[in-house]
Amino acid sequence: MIPSALVFRLDYDISAILPGALRITTTAAHVLFSYIAFLIIGALLFIHVRLGLRKKKSIVTGMSLLFLFVILCFSGIGLFYLANENLIKVSSVAHIGLGLVFFVMYLIHLTKN
User: Distance between CA 77 and CA 100 in Å, rounded?
Assistant: First the structure.
């Protein structure tokens, strides 16, 4: 996804992009997994998050993950629905950066327990 974003959103010239049909399939899978993440995080809110808050365990990383997920959702929506080309570029860079930070924060959250 990142090489395709660099080529199509940020106008970089690199040769490491997926061919057309595979790029569309990968993007569709990425969106599908984001919907599944919505379901999982929604389920975690009522059990896992409330229990963590009550026990005062991993609050900083947990709340950071929730915050990052919300911002990732908005930046992802921006990739599809923003009309201004500069805003799409900002949204693309934000989405890539926040996604990488989310992954690192998730690993920290897992190892902290």
Answer: 17
